[in-house]
Amino acid sequence: MDFFFYPSRVAVFGSFKNGAIAYEILRNIVEGGFEGEIIPVNPKGGTVEVAGRTLQIRETLDEAVDTAIIAIPAKFVPSLIDEIGPLIKGAVVISAGFSEVGNADLERELVEKARKHGIRIIGPNCAGIFGVHGKFFGSFEVRVKPGGLALISQSGAFGGAALAMGNDEGIGFSAFVSYGNAADLNESDFLEYFADDENTKAIALYIEGVKDGRRFLEALRYASTKKPVIILKAGKSASGAKAAASHTGSLAGSYEIYRAAFRQAGAIEVEEMEELFDAAKAFEMYTRAGKRVAVITNSGGPGVLATDKLERLGLEMARLSDETVEELRSFLPPQCSVKNPIDLIADADYERYRRTIEVVCGDKNVDSLLVICVPPIFIPSEEIAKAVIEAECDKPVIVNFMAGDLVREGVRLLEEHGIKNFPTPERAARALSWLARRRGF
């Protein structure tokens, strides 16, 4: 499927009036810096001005391209596929008006025409695709920065909201695909593809239901052995399942069956969007972590909250060795607690944090560290961020800087060095629990 996510030539079909879906997709492709050839197609011809460029609109497609993006009325799509089939490898059908509104015959015709020419279809009724490392933004959703997360979404609107939220959370993406009705390619195909995509480090999947459970389980198991797969399942309740069925026409089925399948395949299920991105941030930094955690904090309360959450999630508070305790006592003020959680007290500075991280990291009983910072007004958060960045530690370090404006500059400095911040102790603890679930891979 490289022709979808790393194309060299693309055609866009639809109206190119300002505000029209085809125009917005064309604008996204141009503004996103696509380096290949872009061919707008509309029977009326003419030109279109977009992002400072003037493009000639072809009346028909008369040369081969990798991918066609189609945003025309649904009833005309099958005949268009038949017409351009010999010239394309794949088509992204944005158009709605197929099985999701009861028009199953038209959808079957679309698939028949595609199979006749040996081409693959994404959609219909979808929001498009991104191949971020190919600088290809073939969707009307907000563009994102390059990174390692591939987002697969059954819902276009969810996908768009997730991309925007990912931008706010500092997530980098390798790809995005909204597959809508999944008339041809579906979640299983994309799981298998991104499992082997070298630019993808983790896969996030939003699903409401699947049509072929056995195939899905096989694809999920395959992908999970290669890289983390984070799943957000909608339609868990009886009412939610009915809503999911009416949304995309997929069978939602029993949530218990899905949950068992996720566990069997080794996927990581999350409960809400916030968790999806927290998991993605964790896996962008690390591939896995052990269960024994050391907590380093300058405030007792957040340290206790982190401890409670870690233990509820099935992780262990690491038992520090006598040597580690003695070394900590050698340089920490007597008011500090050298038990785990290690409380550096409110006036902890760069040196105190850095040395503590390095000493604790060297303890063979510690698998990972959770570093909490609630800076007093007289110590800049950047100072503690610098300590985290410069500390020599070869184990996973998850960071919780809190809160708001007080830590804004410190969080910015951390992110510049590839360290993601988790804004509460509980979210930081959850990040470690997801990393610990990957220990067997």
Summarize the structure.
Its EC number is 6.2.1.13. By secondary structure, the chain is of the alpha/beta class.
Could you characterize the architecture of this molecule?
This protein has 441 residues and is α/β, with parallel strands linked by helices. Helix content is 40%, strand content 20%. The protein has helices at 2-5, 21-31, 77-84, 104-117, 156-169, 187-195, 213-226, 238-248, 255-265, 273-285, 300-312, 322-331, 350-361, 381-390, 408-416, 425-437; strands at residues 9-14, 37-41, 47-50, 53-56, 67-71, 90-93, 120-122, 128-131, 136-139, 146-153, 173-178, 202-207, 229-233, 268-270, 292-297, 316-317, 342-343, 368-373, 397-401.
- Given as residue ranges, the uncertain stretches (5+ residues, pLDDT < 50) are 246-251
Provide the CATH architecture of the largest domain: 3-Layer(aba) Sandwich
Gyration radius, rounded: 25 Å
Task: Give the strand order, joined by hyphens, for the main sheet.
Answer: 9-8-11-10-12-13-14
CATH T-level fold name of the largest domain = Rossmann fold
Helix content: 25-40%
What is the makeup of the main sheet?
Answer: 7 strands, mixed
In round numbers, the mean pLDDT is: 93
Strand portion: 15-25%
Number of strands: 19
Count of the domains? 3
Helix/strand/pairing class, anyone? alpha/beta
Give the full name of the CATH homologous superfamily of the largest domain.
Succinyl-CoA synthetase domains
CATH class of the largest domain: Alpha Beta
Work out the helix count: 16
Shape: elongated
Task: State the end-to-end CA separation.
Answer: 26 Å
Keywords: ATP-binding, Ligase, Nucleotide-binding
Catalytic activity: acetate + ATP + CoA = acetyl-CoA + ADP + phosphate
Organism: Thermococcus camini
Domain CoA-binding: 4-98
